Amino acid sequence: MSRRTAVPLPKAYRLLNHGPTVLVSSAHAGRRNVMAAAWNMALDFDPPKVAVVIDKSTLTRDLVEASGEFVLSVPSRQQAAMTLAVGTHSGREIDKFSIAGVHAAVASMVGAPLIEGCLAWLECRVIAEPHIQQSYDLFLGEVVAAWADPTVFSDGRWHFADDRQRSIHYLAGGSFFATGDEFKV
Amino acid sequence: MSRRTAVPLPKAYRLLNHGPTVLVSSAHAGRRNVMAAAWNMALDFDPPKVAVVIDKSTLTRDLVEASGEFVLSVPSRQQAAMTLAVGTHSGREIDKFSIAGVHAAVASMVGAPLIEGCLAWLECRVIAEPHIQQSYDLFLGEVVAAWADPTVFSDGRWHFADDRQRSIHYLAGGSFFATGDEFKV
To answer: Model pTM?
Structure first.
């Protein structure tokens, strides 16, 4: 089971500020799913909001629209193969929770699951904006709870030590960048 | 002068896919400005679109709304202090092009300038969505031209060699992460 400590909501944007690729999980009426999304960003500080692109073809889209909720989980380098797998397969064809390393945990405020073993989690409620959902596949969410593994994020700061536990940034064609050195200017 | 080669538009999303912090430059009626934005993402492949958050308090906001254009430039690690400086000062108070290292170059399709010495550039036209601009400070743009320094990006791939020429990811409080190791799964 993942270690999880609460992140104060005004600090939740820091989980996404550096632009990691995330997993988007969702659930509705007994179905659940998870996909990968490089196209995500923070949108506001307090209350924290996020934006994420969810294509019309995905099962995730149906579940997010029906439930009005989603969870963003920040995967680690050791979860990169799993991230690529959930980003490649469709939940319409397979149960992605049967993929190696994809395990659900219960969220605190939404019905969508957290993905076990990730570095951080943002529980979100959709801010309904039907026009941009339809025109751009763009979903906005308010973060209603946030969590992080305290071995990599605490007191509002990421502090990566183990290279396997760094966040990741998808490029294309199965290639990722790991989050690199921290530096101050 | 920066080396720049054209990036085919269907590959332009790859300049932002890994979540770097960018510079947003703008110009209108003889005024110009540049700010930093960690809150940016790709929004579509072809035609390529982007999303970026531009706060109401900024001069950039005025110039982008008046001109309907902006440029995203991807700064390097050796430009991190400049990135923080243009992200800290307001264009209402100082001419940010007087800050050390901030030099403008002429764009090909828009009036907003490119920022010299960056790794890549996306020339964008605003896709007018007044409601989300007003409610969330969220701007959508279509990428009408894209460029990269061929020493770090070519054939649709980033290939960082010199650590000073890696892209950067802002966290908070003057701290950044460099883009780290590339790996394939």
So the answer is: 0.98
